[in-house]
Amino acid sequence: MTPFELAEPATLKEAISLLDPDDVTVRPIAGGTALMPLMKAGVFRPSRLVSLHKVLQLTAIDAANGELTIGAMTPLAVLERSAAVKSHAPVITRTLRTLSNIRVRNVATIGGSLAHADPHMDLPPVLIALGARVTVTGRAGERTLPVEELFAGYFETALARDELITSVVIPSQGSRRAVYLKCTTRAVHDWPALGIAVSLDADGSTIKSARIVISAATEKATRLKALERGLTGAIIDVSNERDIRLIRDIVDEETSSGEAQLISDGQGSAAYKKQLVRVYVARALAAALKDGGR
After folding, report:
1. From 69, 199, 217, 292, which residue has the greatest number of CB atoms within 10 Å?
2. Domain residues of the chain, as ranges?
3. Residue ranges of the chain with per-residue pLDDT less than 70
């Protein structure tokens, strides 16, 4: 690796002041599980890294007014063990158990994983399905945006170079049911060929509203909005072949129309991923309707 300056500010204000909106070689670093391999490979050569490890105000988990607020520097392993997270959104706890391995989860942070914007990550589709939002702070002040609007493309976000994700806020889930499924070509903790998160507000088999998000098969975590509209108000029996065909027909139309453009990569071809989406959407809906959990 080439030499670089390492800054370790103790406050959020100081950290933001050390970022340079005009210099792409100045970057913040959280856990470093994504950034360090890029540096070792020579893909990224920083002139300055701004470490956020000493900014303690970014590590709190707080449940208040029906919402759960998670500091951006909270390690994923802490989320995995958090009683507050399990009570508020148990789908996150279940998802983290198969996210990479415990060594990575001990170091990687929720803010860093979102800012990296790798479409293969497990948490973005889950957080989008839960209706989560991020708080972003920079020189211009503070702003809030839905997690689904954070991602601009493959490894791209809507963040300015002098902005940091400071927290993730998950609204009350009420009686909604949420599941996350993924398909990997090797071990369960490997990069997925497809990740799918489903959150339903349902009365028995009648779906009042749905949020369905796919990742890994697309350049960024993407909601299947046509399918969400098609399921709203519908009585779905996923053991009924007619209902499964209806779901798959909508998925086929949505992925063919460009609304959810599928990509080919090392985890599989676009054609392969299309078949995965057709199969796993039905499985995820079945799991959400059957389990009745959040």
Report:
1. 217
2. 57-170, 182-291
3. 291-294
